[in-house]
Amino acid sequence: MAHNAAELIETPLLDGDLLRQTAIREIRAQIVTLPSVRAHRLSNTEFSHREFVLVRVRLANGIEGIGEAAVLGGPRWAEESVESIQAAVTRYLAPALLDCPAARPAEAALRMAKAAFRNNAAKGAVETAIYDALAQTLDVPLTLLFGGALRDRVPVLWALASGDAEQEVEEARAKLAAREHRDFKIKLGFASPEDDLRRLRRLRDEVPEMRRLIVDVNQAWSEADCRRFLPALQELRVDLIEQPLPGDDFEGMARVAAQSPIPLMVDEAAFTHREITRAGTMGCGSVYSLKLVKSGGLRALTQAARVAESSGMELYGGCLLEGSIGAAAHLAVFATLPRLPQGCEHFGPRLHVSEIVKDPLVIEDFHLCVPQGPGLGVHLDEDRLRDALRPS
Ligand SMILES: [Mg+2]
């Protein structure tokens, strides 16, 4: 029987049962605190406990999905804090998503975009939980919803960020001996450039088995600093320099990149697709750091990867020190990318003394393994979670 246009628009794209089964019934946001194995220092902050927001989305069929919204020691790396994320989720995103089917993630993203401006970490965690619940309902791994996995593991580096050269040398040696990490990222910018260079020189001299060495300046240098210290970084065989200048200094980054024999990586400068295009076409760097907290959703993260590549940048799997839940979410996308030449930095699961999942991610033979099984592939340990919840 012929349908008229109105009937066609009304015709569900998916089986009506699936839409009913996956209707969102409840969204919760809980603040979790986990102690780190050691203090972690960046150019503008330092912390020994990591706080994040656990988002739980329950569907009409009773299935619950989970997501993680990461911050770095308060609203310092970006503007969101665990308190603002919890408020954005419970007060604005959750009401907007009530009854939306998880089987329509594009509609969920649209509803969130209308309900709140930016708030990318909050949206990213909610969308992860929606996708997790949908993939569990369909009984498929989350990678399948992004095109299917092209790899089952991703090279993973470790960040040395205590600022204590002696400790960093020992930590690097231990990671190499355990065959967990052979590539390292060194956080710079909390000491003077001269002191930072002394740390780097000790690492290169005393850990010769170290393979790649990346430095992350977290926006702490001036253009003049770059001109002064680039030759020393080149002499130390640094492979990649991450965001040396402030995020909004696109022109400065482009000038430094044009001079530098070492590739620059764009991180804090580019959240939106338009910013990524601008950074790539202006020549601000040759590598882009993909992060859920910048893209605001897993679907947007896959799109960011395409935009960065088409703007001339290689891809790097960035993190904001997420634990196993957030790392598994990133891996669901990273595993499906045709090219990920720079590997990833999702060492966060090993930075905590304990985790809140029964099945923390596995790092072996210098790679992070993509979890198997339906959904994200990681599951809450309710006892551990109870112990880790921040008292309200
Ligand atoms: Mg960075």
UniProtKB/TrEMBL annotation:
Pathway the protein contributes to: Aromatic compound metabolism
Q: Which Pfam families match?
A: MR_MLE_C, MR_MLE_N
- BP term (GO), one: peptide metabolic process
Task: Report the sequence similarity comment from the record.
Answer: Belongs to the mandelate racemase/muconate lactonizing enzyme family.
Instruction: Give the active-site positions.
Output: K187, E345
For molecular function, the Gene Ontology terms on record are: chloromuconate cycloisomerase activity; magnesium ion binding; manganese ion binding; muconate cycloisomerase activity; racemase and epimerase activity
Top-level taxon in the UniProt lineage: Bacteria
Classification via SMART domains: MR_MLE
SUPFAM superfamilies (alphabetical): Enolase C-terminal domain-like, Enolase N-terminal domain-like
Q: Where is the Mandelate racemase/muconate lactonizing enzyme C-terminal domain?
A: 165-263
Q: Which InterPro entries match?
A: Chloromuconate_cycloisomerase, Enolase-like_C_sf, Enolase-like_N, Enolase_C-like, Mandel_Rmase/mucon_lact_enz_CS, Mandelate_racemase_C, Mandelate_racemase_N_dom
**Keywords (A to Z) from UniProt:** Aromatic hydrocarbons catabolism, Isomerase, Manganese, Metal-binding
Q: What is this protein called?
A: Muconate/chloromuconate family cycloisomerase
Gene3D superfamilies the UniProt entry points to? Enolase-like C-terminal domain, Enolase-like, N-terminal domain
**What organism does this protein naturally occur in?**
Ponticoccus litoralis
Which cofactor(s) are needed, names only? Mn(2+)
